[in-house]
Write a structure and sequence with these properties.
Layout: E1 2-6, E2 8-10, E3 15-16, E4 20-25, E5 28-34, E6 44-47, E7 51-55, E8 57-62, H1 73-76, H2 81-97, E9 100-105, H3 112-121, E10 131-134, H4 155-168, E11 174-177, H5 196-208, E12 213-219, H6 220-228, E13 233-241, E14 244-245, H7 249-258, E15 262-263, H8 279-288, H9 292-309, E16 313-314, H10 330-339, H11 344-350, H12 353-358, E17 376-380, E18 393-398, E19 401-402
Parallel strand pairs: 1-6, 2-7, 8-9, 9-10, 11-12, 12-13, 13-15, 15-16
Antiparallel strand pairs: 1-4, 2-3, 4-5, 7-17, 13-14, 17-18, 18-19
Length: 408
């Protein structure tokens, strides 16, 4: 057994600031104590001093096949299988180094990440890597958002075949592109890509197999259709209209009332990174008649209104699609929530306990609790008014084992 001692604990919901001891036996947490009590001579004690222990972060929205370069998703179609595998390895290493111990991949190319997940579950991983959940290629309309990943479908026959293929492969979630996307030229982020009947068909088939559905939805119309189809999660939830973001009261009430997890991949490009922004983002800003700074404020205001109303945000970074959304930048996604009005504890919960629940892991990950997986991170110092300590990860524990320094 191992006892981790440090000056503070965030347990996935709240802080224990006056010293904490977490006892780990094998792959599980078996004890949490305030202060630094005697744990017995048969327990190895590891002292971290002025540090905070918290659950490993869970990123609910990543693209492991994308290499974090400018317009990275556009390049994936041309990669060889070996190149995809190498990118996935580097992506996972970057997440682990940043304290992310579980990732949910929502943008696979031809099931490469599903295969990687299967190898991991079979104990055939070549390196230490975060726990992988995977959707396979997202379902999209012909030449729709991310069509090059292999998920194009048209009409009920193709939709049913594609969903059943994902069921047969045991995906953890079905991802559907309910609207066009920011990174795929030729798609319209203001319009739905599927009808309500088509989305309902996807949901009904997936739910019959016990698999949840999450919908990428930038357009307000796509958010409304996704809610009517009873999806289990919404990514982005930008509620975009030709006049700008708009969150009608009825949409807000539905999100709050059903507590649908909203993947918090909400950010627009930082103004300093605008030169690298995809063409669709530039087009949208021109349509709205706003500067990058003004659009960022519009997004922040919309997210702030949703948060204040009680919308359940979960941490998701959209990692890998560009330099400003690179793998390992989970902190940036949570920082955005703080800037929109969330407290530090609320933002950390979004990236731990709430994210675990959204991924179906709420009974074993995301909390420092007896019997839960010993996926933990230690960060220097204590949390104050911001998330700066997440940029100072000192040690990562995955499944009860300390990850060697320099892993990845």
């Amino acid at each position: 057994m191992i006892a981790i001692r440090c000056s503070a604990l965030f347990d996935g919901t709240s802080f224990m600031p006056a010293g904490a001891t977490v006892v780990v036996d094998g792959a599980a947490i078996v004890g949490i104590e305030a202060g630094h009590p005697d744990v017995g001579a048969d327990v190895e004690v590891v002292e971290f001093g002025e540090a905070t222990v918290l659950p490993g972060l869970i990123d609910t929205h990543v693209h492991l096949v994308a290499d974090s370069g400018p317009n990275a998703l556009d390049l994936v179609e041309g990669y060889s299988d070996a190149e995809v595998d190498a990118v996935v390895t580097r992506s996972l290493a970057a997440h682990l180094a940043a304290g992310v111990t579980t990732v949910r991949d929502l943008g696979d190319r031809r099931f490469a990440v599903v295969d990687r997940r299967d190898a991991q579950r079979a104990g055939r991983s070549r390196v230490t890597e975060p726990t992988i959940l995977a959707s396979g290629p997202p379902l999209t309309s012909p030449r729709g958002h991310c069509y090059y990943l292999g998920g194009e479908v048209s009409g009920p026959v193709e939709i049913e075949a594609a969903v059943r293929e994902r069921i047969d492969r045991g995906v953890d979630v079905v991802k559907v592109m309910a609207s066009g996307g920011m990174t795929t030229t030729g798609t319209d982020i203001m319009l739905p890509q599927f009808s309500l009947d088509e989305l309902r068909l996807i949901v009904e088939i997936a739910h019959a197999a016990g698999i949840p559905v999450t919908a990428h939805a930038h357009a307000l119309a796509a958010v409304e259709i996704s809610l009517a189809a009873e999806v289990d999660g919404i990514e982005h939830c930008g509620c975009l209209t030709p006049q700008g973001p708009r969150v009608p009261d009825e949409v807000l009430h539905a999100l709050v009332g059903r507590q649908i997890p909203v993947g918090a991949a909400l950010m627009s490009p930082p103004p300093v990174s605008y030169d690298q922004a995809p063409p669709n983002i530039r087009k949208m800003m021109a349509q709205f008649g706003v500067t990058p700074e003004q659009f960022l404020e519009l997004r922040r205001a919309a997210a702030g209104r949703m948060h204040a109303a009680g919308v359940r945000f979960v941490g998701g970074s959209d990692a890998g699609i560009n330099t400003f959304m690179a793998h390992g930048l989970m902190r940036s996604a949570l920082d955005f929530l703080v800037s929109a009005g969330a407290t530090v504890a609320e933002a950390l919960a979004a990236g731990t306990s709430l994210a675990a629940a959204a991924c179906g892991f709420g009974s074993r990950k995301g909390l420092v609790r007896n019997g839960f997986d010993a996926d933990l991170i230690l960060v220097d110092g204590g949390f104050g008014a911001d998330l700066a300590p997440l940029g100072r990860v000192r040690q990562v524990m995955l499944g009860g084992r300390f990850v060697p320094a320099g892993t990845g």
